[in-house]
Amino acid sequence: MNAVVRPPKRPRGLRRLLHACVAPKVFDFWASRLDRTWTWERPLARIVDRRVESRDAVTLVLKPNRHWRGFRAGQHLNVSARIDGAAVTRSYSLSDAPRDDGRVAITVKRIEGGKLSAHLFERACVGDVLDVGPAFGEMTWPQADAGAWLFLAAGSGITPLMALVREHAARGMPAPLTLMYWARTREELCFADELLALADAHKDFTVHCILTREADDTAPTGRLDAAQLSSLVADVAQRRVYACGPRGFVETARALVAPQARSFHAEAFTPPTQDFNDVGEAVVTLQRSGRTLTVPRGQSLLSALEAQGIKPASGCRMGICNTCACGKSAGATRDLNTGEVRTEPASALRLCISAAAGDIEIDL
Ligand code: FES
Questions:
Q1: Is 320 helix (H, G, I), strand (E, B) or coil?
Q2: Residue 8 pLDDT more than 60?
Q3: pTM, two decimal places
Q4: Which of 80, 84, 195, 317 lies at 20 to 30 Å from 230 by C-alpha?
């Protein structure tokens, strides 16, 4: 199964002529009377199937229109829907490998207080149309994937790793792969039957489903630690490792596994929470709108601006999708992932993982 990433389409012939006569928004308005996914250039996807995966997760199978450019297993995309009259956007991981029929799947876990996840879990149904953004993310199979792999997944972190497992299985599991997958309870495990069936079918694939809040005679229990890791994976030093889950889990995995593994790459799906002891306030000048605001130092600029009624474009809220990127022309900001303070002018800034470290000017 090959990854499918298509180049952008250029207007040609009739399309170029139409473009000169009809504004894309006007075209979209009339075309949507015939089919809600027909647009001039806007990527949309129709929900064509829905499967319950666990107590609090559902898989939505989507059929994107021709403007969506494809993806590689392990990537994510931004999904938007209108809820109570406002567009809400969040990032979700694609949980299946690329398919010949162009359908894609996202697995959505209902998050407490999460507007879009509740909408997709409880109300979205077959036939609904969603806005979708381009795929993004680096946690994909490398061109040369020789050598043994270890995947560490906690909670929703299973989703992109499941796409990678499925792609690996479709190729016949060409390299040994062990998956350690933590969920709080058995009811919250996604894909458990499929994973166990794949492990039965492929001797080079091993799966350990581990519960953290439920005693179970048939499964290991407890959070990731050195004893658990060494008891389940004897050869970490030979492994390349992908880890995905909440930030605390990813940081534990990084501290424990990265020093001994062949390579380590992680993606956390919760925003950075480190406290760098930045106190006080800073003045943020929004150059395009001409507004000046006072925000707390140390708080992500995205959250600080939203708290004042400004809604910059955003998606993943963890520094991966680049949707919130904007220019900074002056001032110092702190990268909330690394703690680094950046003072260079005329630089790009991701609002969700940057905080004002002093007065700043940004291109909003
Ligand atoms: S919202 Fe995705 S990088 Fe900021």
A1: coil
A2: no
A3: 0.86
A4: 195
Q: Of 190, 177, 174, which Cα lies nearest the Cα of 241?
A: 177
pLDDT of residue 270: 79
Atom of ligand 1 nearest to the CA of 317: 1
3-state secondary structure of 306: helix
Question: 272 vs 75, 283, 317, 331, 355, CA distance in Å?
Answer: 20, 22, 9, 21, 11
Pocket test for ligand 1, best of 316, 333, 349 (most atoms within 8 A of CB): 316
Q: What separation in angstroms does the CA of 132 have from each of 99, 106, 129, 227, 270? A: 17, 11, 9, 42, 21
The CATH architecture of the domain made up of 148-268 is 3-Layer(aba) Sandwich (3.40)
Query: Of 129, 215, 117, 222, which Cα lies nearest the Cα of 159?
Result: 117
Give 314 Cα–ligand 1 centroid separation in angstroms: 5
CATH code, 4-132: 2.40.30.10
> What is the amino acid identity at position 98?
P
According to the CATH classification, is domain 281-312+319-362 in 3.10.20.30? yes
In the structure, what pLDDT confidence band is assigned to residue 363 with cuts at 50, 70 and 90? very high
324 C-beta closer than 6 A to ligand 1: yes
Question: Quick one: pLDDT at residue 2?
Answer: 45
pLDDT in tens, 182-221: 999 999 999 999 999 999 999 999 999 999 998 877 778 8
89 lines ligand 1 (CB under 6 A): no
Spell out the domain ranges in the chain.
4-132, 148-268, 281-312+319-362
Query: Contact 187/195 with Cβ under 8 angstroms?
Result: no
Q: Whole-angstrom Cα distance, residue 320 to residue 91? A: 9
pLDDT score at 1: 43
Token representation of residue 298: 């140390």
